[in-house]
Structures are given as structure tokens and as C-alpha cells.
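User: Predict the structure for this protein chain, please.
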Amino acid sequence: MRLGCNAWILSVLFAIVAHGQDKVDFIRDVQPIFRARCVSCHGAASQSSGLRLDRREDALRGGYSGPVLQPVSSASSRLYQLISTGIAVKGKNLRMPPGGQLPSNEAEIIRRWIDQGAVWPLETDNQAAGKTRPRPWSFQPLRRDEPPSVSDATWVRNPIDAFVLAKLGNTKPSPEAPKTTLVRRLYLDLTGLLPTPEETAAFLADDKPGAYERLVDRLLQSEHYGEKWARPWLDLARFADSEGGVQDYVRPYAWRYREWVIQAVNRDMPFDQFTISQMAGDLLPNPTLEQKLATGFHRNTVTSREGGIDLAQLRFDQLVDRANTVGTAWLGLTVGCAQCHDHKYDPITQKDYYRLMAFFENSAEVDIEAPVPGEIGPYRQHVGEYRKQRQKILEEYAVAPLQLDWETNLREAAAHPGMRTDWDGFYDSFSKLVDNAPKILHKPSAQRIAREQEALTNFFVQYAEGPLGKKRYEELHLKTAHEQLTALREKYPQLSLMMTLAEEAERRPSYIRLRGSYKDLGTEVTPGIPESLGALPTDRPADRLALAQWLVSPDNPLTARVAVNRSWQELFGRGLSRTPEDFGMQGEKPTHPELMDWLASQLIRSGWSMKAINRLIVTSATYRQSSRIRPELEASDPGNTLLARQSRVRLPAELIRDAALSASGLLLDTVGGESVRPPQPEGVTDLSYSMKWVETTGRNRYRRGIYVQTQRTALYPLLGNFDVPDRTVSCARREISNTPLQALNLMNDPLFTEAAQALTARLLKEPGTEAQRIDRAFQFCYARQASGKERDTLSSYLARRRQLARSNAKLGEEMPVAEFDHIDPAEAAAWFGLARSLLNTDEFITRE
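Assistant: Here is the predicted structure, written as C-alpha cells:
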């Protein structure tokens, strides 16, 4: 802070008193002037001096060591002298505020305020200090109330129902949904896939007690359960296959973190271990590769390799993202609101925020070699020959001495910036395009691992035209060397990498950043949790592992509440609290707080088993209700907050794609593996600076939506139009829109065109009457048979489509009839139209 501003602030202190007439209101009239003239009055701390003006007690003692002056009139007020005539200091006239005189009307307001007693309302101090601000409901300790007694105990299947029924009062719950609805609901909610006609028939035929529970247990054990329930977590983890930023380069190994999440969910890894592994798996005793891979959660931050980017600011932005993501994913708090100033509503100070960020200050991004199954054998067999051939190329083009001179010049540029601006530019490009470039450059050559040395050499060979000059670069044929090195690497098997986070040996200091600016350092801070939520134990280092353990400790009431609320959101379309990202004062309180706390405590009692919680929810009578809207509820409870029925929920984007592939029979349901790039409309690739969308060939293009490559700057259009987040920040709740473009997607998207064709082939290949085929189509799409009215309507539609196709030979010929060699083209065209219609209905994309 500038000296002039300090003098301006201190002059305000001389006028502060506790009593006086309330004619000029401090908050209404005076404080806005201070805010406009000095940022320290704007509810934030001057962390460099310890002075702040939003709390009277701190203002009276902080930043001023002399005696507190007695109240004065404007005639003798130092403040008024400074803003009116100025004060002589060391032969100079000091006048405030710096940079210009106060308008006369503002100066008059301050004069009147001083003469009236300079009232500083006590209630303002209390509010700023958090003394009268209530703690959010979510900060209270968990309570486990016994389920309430209810009048209709026969409806209650488990304790969830007792809490819901007690809240309903005189309102009766809805009847149980039909079995056809329940089987489709369970499959979509637990696996994200449609049931096959055979699976539906088996459930409908099982009349023995416990048939429903047996189906639930089978689905919980399905390997597709992990794919369905990994999706909302990947939203929170802001997972993507690309870096973001202007270039948005692909991260070829990002998918391995997604794989870890799917497998962890399938194994029902206890949520406390799930948390600790992702937060600090690398800090566990003797961490396994899997535990290190889990820290890839923190590697999903956006990065940039743009030439003009400030690497210090980029690192700060990534630390901000990591702190904010922890706040969203585990605490359900908008902690990011405290980056620039104390949180305006929740008891989270700016110091709290930077103490949370300090847990990540000492972390480094590290890629480690970790072969996937089937890689290590071929790699070991060929690595010797690969290195031999590589060395041969490097010797042929005399790369080593050229590179040595280049490295020397880069180190000089790093040590003496500004001395040689051309080499400053070369160093800047190098440091951004090579991961951990400065560390590698300053390592002695003998201490570099093979992968580091290779990255350094490859960069030099590719970009040496800059330091060598175009003519010299061409004379040395280094472009040819680059092409040969690239081809050689593609020819021989390489080891896959893991993106992880690791702790550096030397601890970096952490500071509050004034007004959230990465350049303006305030008071130094140490890692810690928000003071309003307690403190970490002092018997161990305050590192990421300590933070992770606190997140799932009994001392933290938030994590369990946030976790069960998200499960409820997935199974009912909205959480018990509708704002899963904000459990603070501005968020929505839970409709059933006792139920939320009971579920949260049950999660802990179950050993943090999320499958146990999901099983408890889906086996309740509350979950099994019909979603049919009842007239009496439209007026009394239009938002269905009392849960007198189930909710109709439009499927998430990925599940819409999955449903089309499943109904058509195209789905390749193998679990895990790299991301795929299905066909997409022309021009989408052009939206991204560096993306090369090479379409995946073969059946892999029909994999589930969770495996579609997420390119941050150019989302896969089908998923983007159905509200998939861009994954630049943590997302706890997707928006659900309803736009004409979505209907056009369902009709014309390449995937839905292929799905309709495949569904047509599936129907026509099976023997049966027209009515039987219509029923079969309904079973594929809706897990039910068509009603008589639906059957008659579609029969009429087929007749009209046949007639249209026969009267327009070109229409029949243009049909994609590769699968229909022995079928009348008019018949194929008619059924293709029916298939497209069924895939483009509200019922198809909705979970009842």
C-alpha cells in the first residue's frame, strides 16, 4: 500500500468515536465515499499493514501504534484538514485522497458526519466481525434423530420413508410406479443403460418376494454402475481430455484418471479412502501407483501454453482452481468468494481462503511412467533397439554439440533476463511448451532421466530454427532429423504415463494476495482450514494428507452431508438441498434436514459406502413412487419438494447417447480405456486452435458417452447441446435446458441417424407381424409394450411412409440400406422413419 493511502486511512481513524447523533449515516453516506477513494475501506483487509476499516476494534488498534485520539470537531479534525486545505508535512502540502480532491458535496458530508459525532455504528462492527452473523445450518454438528413415528407404517419400507411421510402431513404419497417403469428407472439410475427386452421380461416374470431388491443388488454389482456414477464425479473433478486455454492441446493420458474413478466406484471404495487418495494419495506411506494416479484429480486444472502468458499467474490461477474445487466437491461451499475479500455471507475470511490454498502451494505436477496391461513386454523387447536407432539419428545430424550450446544460452537467459531479448523469447517458448522445462534445463545432463533428456532434445531439434536462423537450420537438415525422430517414436512401443501431483522437498511460503492479485503479497500464512470449522490437529504436518483426513473426520460436518445430497440429486433430479454447490447462507436449506443428517450419519456408519446409501435410497417407497403429476399437488407443492411423487428427469447428455446406442444395438459396452472421437458435424474442429478430430474407426466409435473425448474449447456438439459442462471449473449441478436445437440433434445428428438405421435393421431382421415389431421397438426404447392406440397410430404412419417412398423412388434409393439387401427399400424407409420418431420422443430421453 502506498504511503499516501496509509495517511488517508489513518486520518479516518482520528475521527472515529463510539457515540453521537445519527443524522449523517455512516453506512449510507460516509462509507461509500471511503470505498470509492480507498480499497481498504471496501470490506477487505490491508494485509500488509494489519489495518482494516470494516471492523472498529481492528481499526482502532491496527496499523497505528500511537494513542487513540479523542473526538474532534471538523475545525480541528486532521481528516477534514487533509481533504479540504491539506496539511504541511516536511515542506510539502499533503492532501488526500491521493490523485485528486474530493468533490465538495462529499467533503461536506464528511464534515457534517464529524461535527455530529462521527458515529461508527456498533452493529456494523459486529456484522463485519461475524459476531451477529449466524453460522450456516451446514456448519452445525451432524444429528442422528430417530425416524419419526407415522400414521401409515405400512407404506414405510425403510427409515427414509418415515422422514418423508412425516413431512407430508395430510398429503398422501403417490402409488408405486408400474414394474415396467421401475425396471427402466433402476437400469438408467444405477447403470445408465436401458434394460434389454429379455431383462425386462425376467423382472416382470419374477413374482417372488424380494424381486425388486434382487434386481437392485444385481445392478449395483454391474460393471456399468461405475460408468454411470463416475459421471457426476468427473463433473466435480472438471475432468477433460484437453488442457483448455487458447491452444487446448490434448492430454493423451488424462483418461487414466477417469479409469481410476470408474474402477473405484465399481469396487465401492469407501468414500473416505476415495477422498484421501485423490487429495493426497502420494503422501500416504509407501503409496502405490494407483494411489498416485488418484491425485490426477488435481491435474484437471486448465493450463495455457500461449506465448504471452505469465507462468507465475498461471500457477496462481491453478492454485485458485484447486482450492475452489475442494470447496465445491467436498465442502459444498463457495470458498472462491473469499479470494479478494472476506466472504460476504459465510464465515470464511480471506485469510481462511489463502490458508486453504497453501495446502497446494508446495505441490508439483509430475508425470510418471506407468504401463497399462500389455505394454511392458513389447516395450522391454524393443526399447534397446529404439534407443540405438535414436542415437544414430542424433549422431548423424550432430545434434549433441548444437544442443549443448543451446542449453548454455537458455540458462544464461534465465539467469539474466533482459540482457539478450532474443534468447528471452526462446526461453519463454521453451518453458511453456515443455512440461517442467526449467527444472529439466537446470539439471545436470547425467541426472536427467531418459524421458526428460528426450523431451529436451526433441524440442531443440523441432524449434532450433529460431536460435540458429533459417539458413543454418536448413543447412543442418534438422527438420529432417525431427521428422525421423517422430517417425521412429511412432514405430516403437512406448510406455504410457500417469498425470500425478507430488510434494516438493523445499516448502514455498504462502501469502494472502491483496484484492486477489497474484502479484500483491500480503501477510504470510500457513496451511489451515477455515477457523469457523475448527482447526487441524497439531501433532502432524499440515499438508494435503492432513487436509484430506480432516475432510472425512467426525469434526467436519460438511463432507457427509454434501455426498448424500449428491446421491439424492442423481436419484430424484434435485437434492434435499437444491444448491449442492452452496451449503452456505446463500444456498437453499434442505427440505428434509433431519433426513439429510440421518443419511449422512448412515454413510459414516456404513463405512462410507456410497453403494449402501444408493441401495437404501432406491429400495425406499419414496423412490418407487409414480412420477405422474397429481392435480392436488400442482397447487400445494409444484416443485415436488415434499416428495409426494417421483420426479421425471431428463437424461444427462451422455446417457441420451447411451440410450440411443443401447436401443439400436450398436453399443460397444466394454468398460474403460482411452477416449474416442465419434463423427461430428463439419466445422466444429475449426472452433479449436489446435484440435485434430481424427474420427475413431470400427466399433469403438459406439462406446458410451463417458468415453467421448472432452475438448474444452469445442465440446462434442451432441453432448454440449444437452448441457454437458465445459469442465473448466468444478460443476456440482448441471443445467437442464429445453431447446429446439436438441430436437434437431435427436433427428439429424450422425449418431442418431446411424442408431435409427441400426434399430430399423434390428426390427426387420426378426420375424413377426407389424404389430409385433412395433411392440418390439417399444421394448427396445421404452421397456414396455405399445398401447392399442399407439400401435394403431404407428401402423397408419408406416402405411403413409410406404406410400410416400413408393411414389418417390429417389427417397427409397437414398435410404442408407446397407443392412437391408433383401428388404424392399420402401419398407426400410418406412421403418427408418418410425425408428427416428421413437428415438426423438420425450419419453425416450426421460427417466420416469
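Residues 311-331 form the longest helix (21 residues).
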